[in-house]
TrEMBL record:
GO biological process: SCF-dependent proteasomal ubiquitin-dependent protein catabolic process
Composition bias type Low complexity, residue spans: 101-112
Organism listed in the record: Yarrowia lipolytica
Name this polypeptide is given: DNA repair protein RAD7
Domain annotation F-box/LRR-repeat protein 15-like leucin rich repeat: ranges: 370-574
Ranges of compositional bias, category Basic and acidic residues: 66-77
Ranges where the DNA repair protein rhp7 treble clef domain occurs: 154-191
Region (Disordered): 66-153
Composition bias type Acidic residues, residue spans: 135-145
SUPFAM superfamilies reported for this sequence: RNI-like (SSF52047)
Length: 606
């Protein structure tokens, strides 16, 4: 309670409000006018809604405004804060109710930011015009805030902000995009709506195109706007494979291409596989057998008895009886690829090697935990003609005896892969030394990925492999620049076409230079992912020595930037793919040719 100019003020509300002092007579007139208007509105609502339990339908705009918390008479429905006025001279007392937001001071900073948003301004203007229109029916003498500012209310005439035509304003007249207080006529509004739809459609098509291009890059293939007719036919066949009764004579290569597409799309199953059966078929590739049951796998031996090459990937449903049946029926089998056959026991493998071992020249076994070192030893005895051997991720081989036997007894090997053993100590420098002494001069491909116990000694041993064309030593992290130099410096070999040394984190500029000096003219594919230091100076030195390079992996090489990538693109005419995952120095400003795929750039957004 305080005195102010002879008037005592008392505030009965704890919320922050503005104090207003006005004469009793003036306030009484306004109070009577507001009460009369509110009572008339209340009687009107009672007549329409009755007791209020059943209400008629509302318009979409009314429901939207209601959800946003915008009501026509929200201010009058909220309890007002009261200020008591006691006048000493006349002894008259009156109270004033001032409609203010409880959080007026708290939201002052946030409201200014919202007013800058054109969408919020448009919604508020629509709501305000509709509210003023409704209230004008009750009290035509009242003047709206927007009318004072110059914004016309629904029913009034205004001039279009674009074409200058005089038109009648409606509750849905659109505001000008640059000035929320100016309105558009119907024709200009429809033109804006049309432009917005076209822009949304254009953005949608661009997003779809970017998504297709990104999927193509991740699938390691080129996105072609106009594919070959042959590829279009193959895609059509794979799409409607369930309705194709027979593929006919389309060639083994195209059949394998269709099979790979079906495997990638997870469409290869017990029914679709039957379309590939042919008694004269020599090569059959099923890279995803997860949807093919045991009985269907056994049918391969019955319908394709002349197979020479068989690929069964992800064949976890292959059982003992199926493998033995295939061994019995496929008398001409020379190449076998089996991945994920975890139901086949060691004894079954031995029986199978007895049946087909004499004719096998290529054998690949991956991801099997039941084949043991003893089975590998038995395989070496029964398959003496092997020219290609792949043993990868065999968790059941816990003794180096199997790998040692393969390295010392298989003298015809030209390609060998011993990767990701159960324990790194199973594959040592001495084992590789024995392998090289047995068949080193004839080896064309060596893959020792994941054999992290190997050191620079192995690199020195590989100098005896004078016919080597492909070398993979990924995740062998003990290799150093000196070891790489001991292998490649003045190495008398025709040159490597492929070299993959991912995650060899101790290697850097010196290794890259000596590698390119030795095999640069013949290199087609190279991976130096996660090498410690490869900078612009090194790339400038070696880029002109790689005329046949087709793809290169430079991921997680912190020295790689836009200049490095552009140098490679300019100086390697056959280059098709560059991987730059984890290279922050490669930005959106990097420019490469149209025929080069730049994969993994951080700035690229799908």
């Amino acid at each position: 309670m305080s005195d102010f100019g002879g008037v005592r003020l008392s505030c009965t509300s704890s919320a922050p409000i503005y104090r207003l002092v006005m004469g009793g007579e003036t306030w009484q007139k306004k109070q009577n006018h507001a009460t009369h208007r509110h009572m008339r509105h209340y009687r009107h609502r009672q007549a329409v809604t009755g007791s209020g339990e059943v209400r008629g339908p509302n318009s979409a705009l009314t429901e939207f405004l209601k959800e946003q918390g915008i009501t026509r008479r929200r201010e009058s429905s909220e309890p007002p804060d009261e200020v008591g006025l006691e006048v000493g001279d006349q002894g008259q007392t009156s109270q004033t109710a001032i409609e203010l937001s409880d959080n007026n001071t708290d939201d002052s900073s946030g409201s200014s930011a919202d007013e800058d948003d054109p969408d919020i301004v448009r919604i508020r203007n629509l709501a305000r015009r509709k509210r003023n229109w409704d209230e004008s029916e009750d009290d035509p003498d009242m003047t709206s805030e927007e009318e004072i500012k110059g914004v016309k209310n629904p029913g009034q005439k205004d001039t279009c902000a674009v074409c200058g035509v005089l038109f009648v304003v409606t509750a849905f007249s659109r505001n000008h995009k640059n000035d929320a207080l100016k309105l558009l006529c119907y024709d200009c509004t429809m033109e804006e709506v049309k432009k917005e739809k076209e822009a949304k459609k254009r953005d949608h098509n661009l997003r779809k195109l970017r998504k297709k291009q990104a999927e193509a890059l991740l699938d390691q293939k080129q996105y072609i706007r106009v594919p070959k007719l042959q590829d279009m036919c193959i895609t059509l066949i794979t799409t409607h494979i369930d309705h194709v009764e027979a593929l006919g004579d389309i060639g083994g290569e195209n059949k394998n291409k269709i099979s790979r597409i079906l495997s990638r799309n997870r469409r290869l199953d017990s029914e679709t596989m039957k379309f590939f059966f042919d008694t004269q078929l020599k090569n059959l590739e099923f890279w995803d057998c997860s949807n093919i049951d045991s009985e269907s796998l056994r049918m391969i031996g019955s319908f394709c008895p002349n197979l020479e090459e068989l690929v069964l990937g992800m064949c976890g449903r292959l059982r003992k009886e199926d493998l033995l049946y295939l061994g019995e029926k496929l008398k001409s089998l020379a190449s076998l690829y089996i991945d994920g056959a975890f139901l086949i026991s060691g004894d079954t493998w031995n029986v199978f090697f007895d049946m087909v071992g004499g004719g096998l020249k290529e054998l690949t076994i991956k991801n099997s935990h039941r084949i043991s070192s003893e089975n590998i030893v038995y395989m070496c005895e029964k398959c003496p003609k092997l020219e290609k051997l792949v043993l990868s991720r065999l968790e059941g081989c816990t003794d180096p005896m199997g790998y040692e036997m393969a390295a010392l007894t298989l003298g015809n090997l030209k390609e060998i892969e011993i990767s990701y053993p159960q324990d790194e100590s199973l594959v040592s420098d001495d084992l590789i030394s024995g392998l090289v002494s047995t068949c080193g001069p004839q080896l064309k491909s060596i893959n020792l990925d994941g054999c992290s116990a190997l050191t620079d000694k192995t690199l020195g041993t590989l100098r005896a492999c004078t016919a080597l064309e492909s070398l993979s030593l990924s995740h062998v992290d003990q290799l150093t620049d000196n070891g790489v130099a001991s292998l490649f410096y003045q190495w008398e070999n025709p040159g490597l076409s492929e070299i993959h040394m991912r995650k060899c984190i101790a290697l850097g500029d010196d290794s890259f230079r000596v590698l390119v000096d030795n095999s640069g003219p013949t290199l087609k594919s190279i991976s130096v992912n996660s090498w410690a230091e490869i900078g612009v100076d090194t790339v400038k030195t070696v880029c002109k020595s790689l005329p046949g390079l087709q793809d290169i992996d430079l991921g997680f090489c912190k020295g790689i930037n836009d200049e490095c990538v552009e140098l490679l693109a300019e100086n390697c005419p056959l280059l098709q793919k560059i991987e730059v995952y984890g290279d922050p120095g490669v930005t959106e400003n990097c420019k490469v040719g149209d025929g080069i795929k730049l994969i993994g750039r951080m700035s690229d957004v799908v």
